[in-house]
Amino acid sequence: MIRVPSIYANALWTKALWLIWVWIIPIIILAAIGYKVMASPDKLNLLIETAVVDWSWMMLSIVLLPLNILLEAKKWKVILGAIENSSLWICTKTILSGKSLNVISPFGIGDAFARIMAVPVRRRKSIIGGVLIDRVSQMLPTLILGLCSGYYLMRNGYDWSVQTILIPMGIGAMLMLSTVVLVNSYRGKLMAYLVLLKGLTLNIALYVASISFARFTVFALQFYFVFLSFGSESPAIVLWLGIGWIFFVKTIFPTLSILGDLVKRELSAILFFSFFAADMGIVIVASFTLWIINILVPSALGIFFIGDIKKRF
Predict the structure, then answer these.
(1) pLDDT at position 213, please?
(2) Which of 259, 261, 232, 235 has its CA nearest to residue 246?
(3) pLDDT tens sequence across 198-242
(4) Please, what is the Cα angle at 231 between 225 and 233, to 5 degrees?
(5) Which of the chain's termini has less CB crowding within 10 Å, N or C?
């Protein structure tokens, strides 16, 4: 007699959880995607009004999207290899569902949550280290090209103030110092979360880094092809370094609002390309177009796999 209410409550909880993850969350994500598009009517109108000069470049950019996602899934599969023999398809579903959840969460929390929930409960602590490896590996090519872009801006007249340089450096140094102190103080408790870091060999690290550079090259090519499709006449070096600058700013500044990623892309693009007399209309349209291709489309596809996360609770 005592167990009946408990069983009934568990059944209700299971149904509520199923309803939330299979219906409510996808609906919220779809609404957020719609809001992201409709909240930028000026860019949407500009996109409609701007003629595509060469559709072959645009199609190349779109065709590269699956390769972009597969490289990210492959990298995650390699990182997981030490503790989990996951298939490329499962990793792809995890990546896509994470992109969907990122639409309604800041700091990439949705992506991390999807990756953690995709493995059995007993191994979830270990995944924290894997997420860290993934983030750092993808930052390497972004920082390298981003710093080259910053140097190019200095060479072409951008006046870097002392605050512009010292503030990011100071924040970065404080974060690194805090991380070192935290890890040193709680290294015993943290080891369970850093299993993948501890087992990271040089060969695996180089393999993961090579996939990260390949993936960065793919989405840089996507951006470049979008510029060409709209008939950009800017020199190739300006386009490539501008692309590097946009991804650099996108990486070092966190996304706080639902439109944060789009705003960062646009502002960073305007800052860089305004120094080179580029057609700012094309710059804004190209940034908006790639945002739709690489962010909104995968987010929409990931909705179909959100329900898989519920099975892991």
Answers:
(1) 94
(2) 261
(3) 667 788 888 999 999 999 999 899 999 999 999 888 888 888 988
(4) 100
(5) N
How many residues belong to the chain? 313
**Beta carbons of 218 and 67 less than 8 angstroms apart:** yes
pLDDT reading at 305 higher than 60: yes
| pTM listed for this prediction | 0.78
Give the confidence band of 158 by pLDDT, cuts at 50, 70, 90: low
**DSSP codes joined into one string, 85-133:** ---HHHHHHHHHHHHHHHTTSSTTHHHHHHHHHTS-GGGHHHHHHHHHH
List, in order, residues 6 or more apart from 115 with CB less than 8 Å away: 76, 94, 98, 127, 130, 131, 134
Cβ pair 128, 88 in contact under 8 A:
no
- Of 110, 65, 67, 118, the closest CA to residue 308 belongs to 118
